[in-house]
Amino acid sequence: MPTSRAGEVYPGESVDPAIAHGKPAITATRIPVAVILHQIAGGQSIESVCASYDLTAEQVRAAVGYGASLVTGDEVYVISPN
Fold first, then answer.
1. What domains are defined for the chain?
2. pTM
């Protein structure tokens, strides 16, 4: 959810209402975390994502870590039985 305040939400990940519509982005860039997560989920390697977005492996891993932190401890609801 976009925010109206700027600040760090996870090491290496920040929100700023003036960047990426207030959604989490890699700190000091305009690259939304969601873009990186979609690239990794789509099968891109960390090295490929780094080259495509001029990021370090540490920045990409931080984005993945932030994504993982969002689902840790969440309740899971089955929407369709097996």
1. 7-66 (1.10.10.10)
2. 0.85
